[in-house]
């Protein structure tokens, strides 16, 4: 299957004459196994720092570090050969331009990631410019910023007031002007996200930001019903993953107890 590139993602928003626009499908993955399952179907795989919560059981994303993110990015790149792969730059890894370039280049040199993602708008525009000038493809992230959750006092929806809506628009435009190839809109009021998507040339990827974005992303363990501690409003569960796995485990344990597993055919 043909590798998905930035050009292919942009063509979904700006198709050739006569072709309709189409939405970008994105999902997170943290290992080679799930990446290989998602790869034939999905456009865009994000190795998200969300793994710190859904994979490592931490209360937020902030303790994820470069070594952790590189390990999981390398694993995803082993499993996915077709999808566009984006590595999340963890909290504290892009405070200065010099630090950001050093860490982003690690993703390029030590994995096959196609791009890196970082959070922030106007204030992070100089860092995005610095990365792009070094040949690194950057995905922006504005709106609700999980890496800033402690500093702002929780997960707060963006765009409810005119002032908040204007700020997130300015953030998105600054990210685009700095050279970002796409931008994630998280936790943005739907009509504001739709307006931003219409004004930007680059594609927008929504999470909790309504259907007016140019694409959508979910954390895979939420979408598959594997993470059950809580369910955000924006998540649609497409599979009772935890329930199905537990039922399979119960049958497995029952077969062991009854002496039905392994059978003669499953023994050497």
Automatic annotation (TrEMBL):
Pathway(s) the chain acts in: Cofactor biosynthesis; (R)-pantothenate biosynthesis; (R)-pantoate from 3-methyl-2-oxobutanoate: step 1/2
GO cellular component: cytoplasm
Keywords: Cytoplasm, Magnesium, Metal-binding, Methyltransferase, Pantothenate biosynthesis, Transferase
Record flagged with keyword Transferase: yes
GO molecular function per UniProt: 3-methyl-2-oxobutanoate hydroxymethyltransferase activity; magnesium ion binding; methyltransferase activity
One Pfam family recorded for the sequence: Pantoate_transf
Reaction(s) this enzyme catalyzes, per UniProt: (6R)-5,10-methylene-5,6,7,8-tetrahydrofolate + 3-methyl-2-oxobutanoate + H2O = 2-dehydropantoate + (6S)-5,6,7,8-tetrahydrofolate
Active-site residue list: 186
Superkingdom in the source lineage: Bacteria
Main localization, broad class: cytoplasm
Known cofactor(s): Mg(2+)
Co-factor binding details: Binds 1 Mg(2+) ion per subunit.
Binding-site positions, 3-methyl-2-oxobutanoate: 49-50, 88, 117
Compartments where found: Cytoplasm
CDD domains xrefs: KPHMT-like
Family membership noted in the UniProt record: Belongs to the PanB family.
Task performed by this protein: Catalyzes the reversible reaction in which hydroxymethyl group from 5,10-methylenetetrahydrofolate is transferred onto alpha-ketoisovalerate to form ketopantoate.
NCBIfam families: panB, PRK00311.1
Quaternary structure annotation from Swiss-Prot or TrEMBL: Homodecamer; pentamer of dimers.
Official protein name in the record: 3-methyl-2-oxobutanoate hydroxymethyltransferase
